[in-house]
């Protein structure tokens, strides 16, 4: 039995019944298989592929480093040992844990870095979809994985590209989820039985702010859909001040109920198109630079959250 096959069988035996801590209870062996496949595709040696199958075995099963040494030899053991988290790491936040892993990885071999980068690709693909974890936790995980990937840069062009792709897709997906939650929270404020005609800013009421946000969200959705469907986008024209005045004046006669529905409709369009990997840039406004999808999501979330904080503060 060759080394890789032996490691695969060994992993399948010891990870039997172990699942990811996600709603789907995904078999953990799927992650190990993905890591091993990536290491092999990147040109990894049999020792590296075997270590990929076993890289979590000491952390997550009763198997010891001594047993790995006995069964698989020094080469595999050095990689597995170098990638096994210390016991105290379990008490750390995800951010602290990733910092410790990154610092430790600096002095590890290229073989360990190859396996670790493949591990981070798979983990980003799996863990960022785990709805049992908060968005903040998952975003911190992605940020921490990027620090680790930076240390492994140059070991394999294939793995570098795969991580870049997985990181971007996960980041956009999480920011879209964050935007959806922010829009829902914003709309919920206007579903409350309050006098939304109170001034929040010198010339804007709470309802004016709803119109302003809806106006800009519809512009975002319109430009995004045009780019996705191959049409020439027609972004807003005028100075930012003038456009903001228009955003309020053009929506003042619209009811709160209708504005909230228009905001939901715009969000649905954004959700439909924003993850399209072929979209590189989205127009913002004539005279302004275009934004990459991830950056655009971040800007919009920040914009809505700022106004939500201001109206919430006013109505305390």
CATH architecture heading of the largest domain: Orthogonal Bundle
Q: Give average pLDDT, whole number.
A: 96
Shape: elongated
Secondary structure tally: strands: 0
Strand content: under 5%
Number of domains: 2
CATH class of the largest domain: Mainly Alpha
Q: Structural class, please?
A: mainly alpha
What does the radius of gyration come to? 25 Å
From N to C, what is the helix and strand string?
HHHHHHHHHHHHH
Instruction: Output the number of helix runs.
Output: 13
Q: How can the largest sheet be summarized?
A: none
CATH superfamily of the largest domain: Hypothetical protein af1432
CATH topology name of the largest domain: Hypothetical protein af1432
Low-confidence stretches: none
Helix content: 55-70%
Q: How far apart are the first and last residues' alpha carbons, in Å? A: 70 Å
């Amino acid at each position: 039995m060759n080394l890789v096959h032996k490691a695969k069988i060994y992993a399948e035996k010891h990870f039997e019944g172990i699942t990811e801590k996600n709603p789907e209870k995904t078999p953990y062996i799927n992650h190990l298989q993905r890591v091993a496949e990536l290491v092999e595709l990147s040109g990894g040696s049999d020792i590296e592929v075997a270590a990929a199958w076993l890289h979590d075995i000491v952390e997550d099963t009763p198997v010891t480093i001594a047993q790995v040494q006995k069964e698989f030899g020094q080469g595999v053991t050095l990689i597995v040992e170098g990638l096994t988290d210390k016991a105290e790491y379990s008490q750390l936040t995800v951010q602290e844990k990733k910092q410790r892993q990154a610092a430790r990885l600096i002095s590890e071999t290229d073989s360990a870095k190859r396996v670790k980068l493949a591990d981070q690709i798979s983990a980003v693909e799996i863990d960022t979809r785990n709805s049992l974890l908060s968005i903040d936790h998952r975003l911190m995980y992605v940020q921490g994985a990027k620090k680790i990937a930076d240390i492994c840069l140059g070991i394999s062009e294939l793995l570098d590209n795969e991580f870049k792709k997985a990181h971007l897709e996960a980041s956009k997906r999480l920011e879209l989820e964050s935007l959806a939650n922010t829009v829902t929270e914003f709309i919920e404020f206007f579903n409350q039985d309050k006098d939304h005609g109170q001034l929040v800013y010198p010339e804007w009421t709470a309802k004016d702010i709803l119109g302003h946000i809806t106006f800009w969200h519809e512009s975002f959705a319109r430009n995004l859909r045009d780019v996705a469907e191959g049409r020439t986008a027609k972004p807003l024209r005028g100075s930012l001040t003038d456009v903001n005045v228009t955003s309020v004046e053009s929506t003042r006669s619209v009811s709160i109920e209708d504005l909230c529905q228009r905001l939901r409709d715009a969000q649905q369009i954004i959700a439909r198109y924003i993850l399209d990997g072929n979209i590189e840039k989205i127009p913002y406004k004539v005279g302004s630079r275009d934004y990459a999808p991830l950056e655009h999501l971040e800007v919009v979330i920040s914009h809505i959250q700022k106004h939500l904080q201001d109206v919430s503060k006013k109505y305390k």
